[in-house]
Amino acid sequence: MNRRTLRARIATGLLGYALLMAAAIFLHGYIVNEAVERTVWRSLLETELDYFQTRRAADPRFEWPQTETLALYRRPLSETASAHLPLALERLPPGLHDEVALDDHEVVVLVRDIGDERVYLTLDISDLEREERRLLLLLVGGSLLAAGLLAVLAWVVAGRQLRPVTRLAAAVDALRPDQRGQRLELTDDAPAEIATIAGAMNQYLERHERFVRREREFVDSVSHELRTPIAVIAGAAELIAARPDLPAAAVAPLRRIRQTARGVEQLIDMLLVLAKEPKRLSSVDQRFRLEELLPEIVLDHEHLTRDKALRLQAGPFAPTLLSAPLQVVQVAVGNLLRNAIENSDHGTIELRVELAGVVRIRDPGQGMTPEEVGRIYAALARRGEWRVGAGIGLELIRRICEHLGWRLDIETGPGRGTLAVLDLRASLVSEGDAGGVV
């Protein structure tokens, strides 16, 4: 959504105000001008007509001297028309009439009944009306020019006045969540309102730093508490493996326990890096083949299907060489597979890599409605309020994908199961550069 800047709003508002004021002044001037004109015309024509009436009373043979601007017409009241009276004047009642068209001229007419005659005294105002229209155009043009200059001035002044706001917005945009000690600095010309906002933001940054510090301390404490039992399990497994009377049937499960303990310890390290220094994830260069890792993940999760009529179908797997944190890939795929198992009761769960680096897990579960899928993606966009099973959850997978350039898509529908697509192609390594494969 494109939003107008405050600067543009101020300039537009002032321009609108200027145009409104110009229109109001023009309308007021027009009304006043028309009223004054009618008063002047009435006074002038009544004076002339009074003079004619006085002379006419003194000398009935007196005739009005016609000029280019003043003309007098008479019509007996007993007649409705006269050959000497212009048609434009015939229907005019007694009184003053402005801007009457008469023979390509504009005239003002004063009509009065004198004795048994109706007298029409006309004044040619064509030149005056033309001058009035010219002045009107000059006035309108000057008003528009003044409004335009005011808009430009408002734009410049608003830009200067809003410069502290712009600098504050740029300073806020430059803040980085992984840096400590960040504060907003104010210039000497910053107004009191900007200082208030900056002060509130600095207080928030301080509270945020304290919160992050507490979270990191908590993560350190939890990681320590997790490492202790893992170390105990690994140590006990080492001691048991060293016993000479160890049954042959226990060798493989014991090896599995030791491998899992090491994997969990590595996973804790990765999660700790994700929580404290996520940028380090992209620098981990563990090279391994995905088609060799996926069967192990399937084997680790087969026990979850024992009480269900479910079958895990693994393959085909396109040859894929990755350079990424192995334990992160293992846990991400394992979490999606666990989710598929937990949401299905019978049928076949397919795990495939048809395109190198793209893991597809399809389950036969009930699926989800579009609304439920929308809530999942909305939760992921908000850094997640939704969790699946007892694994690391979709939110953590999303964070891992964000830092490693991966992508997670979920396609589903009621009655047709769910398809989870984990795109790992950002970590692909060419087959010719396979040195150091784990």
UniProtKB/TrEMBL annotation:
InterPro entries referenced in this protein's UniProt entry, alphabetically: HAMP_dom, HATPase_C_sf, HATPase_dom, His_kinase_dom, HisK_dim/P_dom, HisK_dim/P_sf, TCS_sensor_his_kinase
Locations listed in the record: Membrane
Keyword Membrane: yes
Pfam families: HATPase_c (PF02518), HisKA (PF00512)
Keywords associated with the record: Kinase, Membrane, Phosphoprotein, Transferase, Transmembrane, Transmembrane helix, Two-component regulatory system
EC number: 2.7.13.3
Coiled coil residues, start to end: none
Record domain HAMP: where: 159-213
Transmembrane feature ranges: 12-31, 135-158
Catalysed reaction equations from the record: ATP + protein L-histidine = ADP + protein N-phospho-L-histidine
Domain of life: Bacteria
Enzyme class name: transferase
GO cellular component: plasma membrane
GO molecular function annotations of the record: phosphorelay sensor kinase activity
Entry keyword Membrane: yes
Domain Histidine kinase: 221-428
Protein name: histidine kinase
Organism: Rehaibacterium terrae
Lineage: Bacteria, Pseudomonadati, Pseudomonadota, Gammaproteobacteria, Lysobacterales
